[in-house]
Amino acid sequence: MKDNFKKIFKGGLGQLTIPIIAICLLVIFNLIRDPAFFSIALSHNNEGNLVLSGNLISIINGASELAILAMGMTLVTAACGGQDISVGAAAAIAGSAFVKILKSSPNINGVTVIAAFLFACVVAMIFGSFNGTLVSVFKIQPMIATLILYTCGRSIAYWINGGATPTVDSPIINAIGSFIPGIPIPTPILIVVLVAIVFKLVFHFTSLELFTQSVGINGSAARLNGINSTFIKLLSFIILGVCVAIAGTIGVSRLGLINHETLLLDVEMDTILAVAIGGNNLGGGKFKISGSIIGAYVIQMLTITLYAMKVSSTDVKAYKAVVIILLVVIGSPVIKAKFSKLMNNIKNRKPAVAKGAE
């Protein structure tokens, strides 16, 4: 029993303690407030397909772009000890590039969509490389380095399509943003699962996870052990670029158009918070991708819960801020250290009580 308790608060599982507790509290709160909150139903959408619907589906589906961005942000945070605050603007650029290729073709078919997505990936990776070069080569703090693209990124997205907000109407695009005919699960959820599997396979068959953590913990020591810390930092930004392209593609496909001003607006802060709520050290080092994914769903569940309670959209951010502050403070090293000390005192006190009873 003691060993199981230790596993919860130490090691890899310990990183997931806060996000898991947060999810459980939100679930319990909603079950008390409205037991029907998590009900799932089968219904027909506008195309006549049988699909899953309900608040739970909305939460998992709505957090898809955030979860994908959080995975990439986790690598950048772990390797560089800082965050990329330009992911929303970069997603707008990638989305504009995606639409640019689609609109250049007379017929939007599977080949065109794949070509457009690959082009969006290349564009996002180039901008990711720009951010990564500033951080890894010129040693600029990540938040300052990415402030450049945060400031001008949406203007670049505006220029790509000549200031227009073109629509893209295609069954394939609709399927990416909503449902594949015959599959009742929203496609963005399936994309998140696919991206998570790819990350898992990469970590399993390569040393990327170990190298990233080593660079984040102590870059100098990593270099002495033959790890190219500059390359690892740059690679983390490039991988984040791919995640940005995927999120931008999903965002465009949901709306059926590109709006450079609103696409994934303010997603940067939610992405950083998802990483923080996931138990990852924002100063770099050890990380857990699954924690960031859960953190994304915590944020989305909190948002849907507030809307279900009839909280106005203008007040949602304030309520979210209060709850997130509590979660981050509870998961801070200071609180964790004090909690560990308290548990050790309780554990050491028990043998003394037992001896006194004898």
CATH class: Mainly Alpha
Whole-number total of structural domains: 1
What is the helical fraction, as a range of percent?
A: over 70%
Distance between the ends = 24 Å
What strand line-up does the widest sheet have? 1-2
Q: Tell me the number of strands.
A: 2
What structural class is derived from the secondary structure elements? mainly alpha
Shape: globular
Descriptive report:
The chain has 358 residues and is an all-alpha fold. It has a single domain (2-353), classed as ABC transporter involved in vitamin B12 uptake, BtuC. Helix content is 73%, strand content 2%. The protein has 18 helices and 2 strands. The chain has helices at 2-9, 11-15, 17-33, 55-62, 64-80, 87-104, 110-136, 142-145, 147-160, 171-177, 187-205, 208-217, 219-224, 229-255, 267-277, 289-308, 313-330, 333-357; strands spanning 41-44, 50-53. Strands 1-2 form a two-stranded antiparallel ribbon. Strand 1 and strand 2 form a beta hairpin. It is globular, with a radius of gyration of 22 Å. The chain starts with a helix and ends with a helix. 42% of the residues are buried. Residues 4-12 have low confidence and may be disordered.
Task: Describe the secondary-structure layout.
Elements: H1 2-9, H2 11-15, H3 17-33, E1 41-44, E2 50-53, H4 55-62, H5 64-80, H6 87-104, H7 110-136, H8 142-145, H9 147-160, H10 171-177, H11 187-205, H12 208-217, H13 219-224, H14 229-255, H15 267-277, H16 289-308, H17 313-330, H18 333-357
Antiparallel strand pairs: 1-2
Short description:
With 358 residues, the protein is mostly helical. The protein has helices spanning 2-9, 11-15, 17-33, 55-62, 64-80, 87-104, 110-136, 142-145, 147-160, 171-177, 187-205, 208-217, 219-224, 229-255, 267-277, 289-308, 313-330, 333-357, and strands spanning 41-44, 50-53. It has a single domain, classed as Orthogonal Bundle (ABC transporter involved in vitamin B12 uptake, BtuC).
